[in-house]
Write a structure and sequence with these properties.
The protein is mainly beta. The chain has four helices and 32 strands. Strands 2, 11, 12, 14, 16, 17 and 19 form a seven-stranded mixed sheet that branches. The N terminus is likely disordered. Bound molecules: copper (II) ion (CU). The site of copper (II) ion (CU) has 5 residues, from loops.
């Protein structure tokens, strides 16, 4: 084992990656101890939120490997909820996918599980809880980088995890509302009667409505809130690489680097057909973008969420060439007016028709839900597990078309595969984007994926990455037969 080529570092404060020479891939197995446990998280102002954390850090430690290395993660659950660890965006054996009740038994409080696999494909991935007890919202997530030695070099790299802290009583209420619905416990989940009660959780009516009921305490970058977070030093002349993850359980975020263009090179860790410069990223829940920024002159600038909500303006971190500029860092207007932000259509260009060559199977899924007073989110009128399953044979090329009859956009995510996004909002893409999660526009919007059924056999979830929507039924699976 060669530790020098593996980095697990705390992202509780911002993590700066030094540039390492390209490492040779070999069959090293790197051991990682990962423990989920309660963490009282203190917000500026003193309020303490009872979070859960991987290795006592929210976000969890950044895991970084070189393509070709194997990892062995000895996971231990020291929380009081059932958990599992999902390796988001990775194409690995089904038994390692980390979905409680589907690919493995839930890791119960006090339990453990060993994940061992070769992380792939290369790029900016992440890991998070998938135990169906809102573990991700409670703090169980982190960035996972699989280094690609052929990437354009940068002088420095920054892992930037945008995330929220919710009012935990609203999370408990949402979970209680979910668990009261008889239809949505995945097979193999522990009996509801065995569900531990959360500390401080008030008894909730079994008809708690779902939807936009999560109350936010704060929006953060790498566990920090501007101006209370540590700033990041940069130098004039540097070209820096940002690896941005939106780990929000629900929200899309628009992100600017004040005064600078962002040259976007990767979406969900996969190289774009053509790099493109934008004023802002648009990052759906679960999405990642890699962007390069050139530091041309002295100063200090905020990398910042854009919103009319003042809490979101605090979701920022300052980059500075010199500490004296930090008193008045340049910020971005909190509006999208006139801002050229990343969209799939901009990155992919438009075409007259979808390139569906070689497709052997076509599936249409209709998303509904979110109506007032109704807690359900549905696919073709059913909530999980009564949603239509996608049955495939190895070798199939599968086209999935979503039609979203709800008012909200949904970040739909497929496990175990990289799909090609070939259409969005009625626009076929000239250059399909390789992704593992994509926003399906609302109000009768459509989106189309094509993926090759060449993954490891098993049951692969396809679900909304809004954790509330997933828990309320917006989930199905691709099953190899
Ligand atoms: Cu959704």
């Amino acid at each position: 084992m060669n530790r020098s080529r593996f980095l697990v570092s705390s992202a509780g404060a911002l993590t700066v990656f030094a540039i390492a020479p390209p490492a040779r891939a070999d069959s090293d197995v790197v051991d990682i101890a990962l423990t989920a446990a309660p963490l009282p998280f203190q917000l500026p102002g003193g309020h303490v939120v009872p979070l859960l954390a991987y290795n006592a850090s929210v976000p969890g430690p950044v895991m970084r490997v070189t393509r070709g290395q194997r990892i062995r993660v000895r996971y231990r659950n020291a929380t009081n909820i059932p958990t599992s660890v999902h390796w988001h965006g990775q194409v690995i054996p089904n038994a390692m996918d980390g979905v409680a009740g589907i690919t493995q038994p839930p890791v119960l409080p006090g339990g453990s599980f060993v994940y061992e696999f070769e992380p792939a494909p290369s790029g900016t991935r992440w890991y998070h809880d998938h135990g169906f007890h809102m573990g991700m919202i409670r703090g169980l997530f982190g960035l996972f980088v699989i280094e690609d030695p052929s990437d354009e070099p940068a002088d420095a790299e920054y892992a930037l995890v945008f995330h929220d802290i919710s009012d935990m009583s609203s999370v408990d209420a949402a979970l209680r509302g979910t668990s009261a619905a008889p239809d949505i416990d995945p097979p193999g989940s522990p009996e509801r009667a065995e569900m531990p009660s959360m500390p401080g959780m008030p008894g909730m009516a079994s008809t708690t409505p779902m939807g936009d009921m999560l109350a936010y305490r704060a929006h953060l970058v790498n566990g920090g809130i501007y101006p209370h977070a540590r700033s990041l030093p940069v130098r004039v002349g540097q070209r820096i690489r940002l690896r941005v993850l939106n780990a929000s359980a629900a929200d899309t975020r628009y992100i600017c680097f004040a005064g600078h263009a962002l040259r976007v090179t990767h979406a969900d860790g996969n190289r774009l057909p053509e790099a493109m410069s934008v004023d802002a990223l648009r990052v759906g829940a679960g999405e990642r973008y890699d962007a390069y920024v050139e530091i041309a002159k002295p100063g200090a600038w905020l990398l910042q969420g854009i919103s009319a909500d003042p809490l979101i303006a605090q979701q920022a971190v300052a980059f500075a060439t010199d500490a004296r500029y930090l008193a008045t860092p340049q910020s971005s207007p909190q509006t999208l007016e006139g801002v050229r932000f990343f969209t799939y259509e901009l990155a992919g260009g438009s075409s007259a028709r979808i390139d569906d060559r070689g497709v052997t199977k076509r599936v249409s899924l209709r998303i509904t839900g979110g109506t007032y007073g109704d807690p359900r989110w549905m696919i073709d009128g059913g909530v999980w597990p009564h949603t239509p399953k996608i049955s495939v044979h190895r070798g199939d090329r599968v086209l999935v078309k979503f039609t979203n009859d709800s008012d909200m956009e949904h970040p739909m995510h497929l496990h175990g595969h990289t799909f090609r996004l070939v259409e969005v909002g009625g626009t076929p893409l000239l250059r399909p984007l390789a992704k593992d999660v994509s926003l399906v526009p609302g109000a009768h919007g459509t989106s189309t994926w094509i993926f090759d059924a060449k993954a490891f056999p098993g049951r692969w979830l396809l679900h909304c990455h809004n954790e509330i929507h997933m828990m309320a039924g917006l989930m199905t699976e691709v099953v190899y037969s």
